[in-house]
Design brief:
mainly alpha
Length: about 575
């Protein structure tokens, strides 16, 4: 009995220690999403824990007194003295203590266990619902699991690379790329000095980002014109306009934005980087305009029959349908909401987003510096590898052997440009604006580098654009056809729109139509989605091999055509100038 009582006292001490853990101090930087994770306040929970702890301490003191009396009488019995207690009385007391302690300890253990499990579940939910399988918390593919036909749910979470860069191994890879950047810069300086006597020649950089006195005013016009969608939505809701009236106005608004951006690039003959800025921003404003109108009319108007549509194949059905809370407020409030929506790095509209309590200026500055470094890195790659390889192509058209070797030589630089575009735009640029707006859902991409087929790669590469295509093209094609358009039809339409928009951006950004990317999207891009294996090792190897080959081909074909149009005269042939020159020299 004495040994068992000692065990019960130790259990009491454990319960008191565990109960003291309930008072959890909130960490600095916790996301303020306006929700409470418990039924009672922390002060009430702490007061209840103190009462339990005091009760257990009193019981522990009584046990120590009883055990002291028992030991004293046991010593008397061993020495032959008379025992001053009735054993049956203390046996009854000890059994009572044992039963009382056993039941109380069991209750408190269950209470603490359930409380700690709830706390862990809430922490996991607050920190992006991390999976226990991955040390960096790689997100499960949300587009494939438990999403059904529901709308996007915004959750506070860090971007994947931000978490990975806390790991020393990934930080080392970052340092390796930075060291390569410094060495390429030194190589450029040495080459310029020995060839021209200059230390640095930034003429290519200045030319690419030239005409900013045109770009900035034209961008401002695009930015201000996008606010017209707020006025159109207010008119539709307040006047209850039928779609036959407002739809032509809406289509005309999109046509005006696209025509304006394209005309600016062609009329002013903007250089490559400036042209891409105008066309990418034209695309972004157009996508945000559509997102705002769609959400306001679909979920902001009560009784909309389309909002509750769920196809028969949706796994969760109507019971699992999540609909966002969207309202149509006064004009001032709607203008403020749309203003904020234009700056946050997402293309899915909501009236409110999860936000951080404050701006972390250090992280914002680092993100923008990383973006600038990636642009400089790309400039060094073109300066060191692409310009020397292709600047003589209009005069020396070469042969098939020269073309094939150029493709192999361009695979590594082309893939590096792809990686720099990912890190500079999808990670650094988006995280920088997320910090400035305190936008908390940083799922801008997923672990696309681990993709085992091209379907996963397309979904994970750019989650921001993929979400817009999924919700506003794929799902809405099925929704507004009442399910008559199947998933395969919706997928092909989504693929076609994505390929066309990419081609429009490149064509007007570069200043000429050369549909190589469109052909790669519509040809191998679609085929690889259907034929790639689901085996992770070989599927991922095949994906990376095709990425290397594809980026090398794109760099060779676009670079040769660029220099051909720059130096060769225009002919009546329908063939691209680089192809015509190559065929004529064969």
């Amino acid at each position: 009995i004495n040994a068992e009582l000692h065990g019960r006292v130790a259990a009491c001490v454990f319960i008191m220690d565990a109960a003291s853990l309930k008072k959890r101090k909130p960490k600095q930087g916790v996301v303020d999403n306006g929700t409470s994770n418990g039924d009672s306040s922390p002060q009430q929970q702490h007061a209840a824990n103190d009462m339990d702890a005091n009760h257990l301490r009193r019981l522990e003191n009584q046990l120590h007194e009883t055990m002291s009396i028992l030991k004293e009488n046991l010593n008397r019995k061993e020495s032959g003295a008379t025992i001053s207690i009735d054993p049956t009385v203390y046996e009854h007391k000890l059994k009572h203590y044992k039963e009382h302690l056993s039941s109380h300890v069991q209750e408190r253990l269950e209470s603490v266990k359930h409380h700690m499990l709830d706390q862990i579940a809430n922490c996991v939910k607050d920190v992006q619902q991390l999976t226990h399988e991955d040390k960096w918390g790689l997100q499960a593919d949300e587009s494939r699991t438990n999403r059904g036909f529901s709308e996007k749910v915004f959750v506070p979470r860090e971007s994947l690379m931000s978490r990975m860069l806390h790991d020393s191994d990934i930080q080392t890879i970052y340092n390796i790329f930075f060291a390569m950047f410094l060495l390429l810069g030194c190589r450029m300086v040495a080459q310029e000095f020995f060839e021209t006597g200059k230390l640095v020649d930034f003429s290519l950089w200045v030319w690419c980002f030239g005409e900013q006195h045109i770009v900035i005013p034209m961008w401002t016009c695009l930015f201000l014109s996008s606010f017209c969608i707020v006025l159109l939505v207010k008119a539709i809701v307040s006047l209850q306009l039928p779609w036959q009236i407002w739809a032509p106005v809406y289509v005309g608004m999109h046509a005006g934005i696209w025509c304006f951006g394209s005309a600016v690039c062609l009329h002013y003959k903007l250089p490559a980087a400036s042209g891409f800025i105008i066309m990418c921003e034209t695309t972004r404003f157009s996508m945000k305009i559509h997102a705002y109108l769609r959400e306001k009319l679909l979920y902001g108007v009560k009784g909309n029959k389309w909002a509750d549509f769920v196809p028969s194949w949706a796994p969760l059905g109507l019971a699992g349908l999540h609909k966002p809370h969207i309202t149509n407020a006064d004009l001032t409030t709607e203008l403020k909401r749309f203003w904020f929506f234009l700056w946050v790095p997402t293309l899915v509209y909501r009236d409110q987003y999860p936000r951080l309590p404050h701006i972390r200026w250090g992280r914002a500055l680092k993100s923008f510096l990383d973006c600038i470094m990636c642009i400089l890195y790309t400039f060094l790659i073109f300066k060191n590898f692409c310009v020397p390889e292709f600047k003589m192509s209009p005069e020396d058209h070469g042969n098939l052997r020269r073309f094939v070797m150029s493709c192999f030589a361009s695979m590594i630089p082309g893939t590096l440009v792809l990686l720099l575009g990912f890190f500079g735009i999808l990670h650094s640029w988006f995280n920088g604006f997320a910090e400035l707006t305190r936008y908390a859902d940083r799922r801008f991409y997923e672990d696309w580098w681990n993709s085992k087929n091209f379907g996963q790669y397309y979904r994970k590469w750019n989650a921001v654009v993929h979400e817009w295509l999924y919700y506003y093209v794929f799902l809405d094609t099925i929704r507004f056809s009442w399910g008559r358009a199947g998933r395969y039809t919706a997928m092909l339409l989504t693929f076609l729109i994505s390929a066309l928009v990419h081609e429009v951006i490149i064509s007007f950004g570069l200043g000429f139509f050369y549909p190589i990317l469109l052909l790669m999207f519509g040809g191998p891009g679609v085929i690889f989605v259907r034929i790639t294996t689901n085996q992770k090792r070989w599927g991922n190897l095949f994906m990376w091999a095709m990425l290397f080959i594809g980026t090398g081909l794109l760099m060779v074909l676009y670079s040769r055509e660029w220099y051909a149009r720059l130096h060769l005269p225009k002919t009546d042939s329908w063939l691209p100038r680089s192809w015509e020159a190559f065929i004529s020299s064969a």
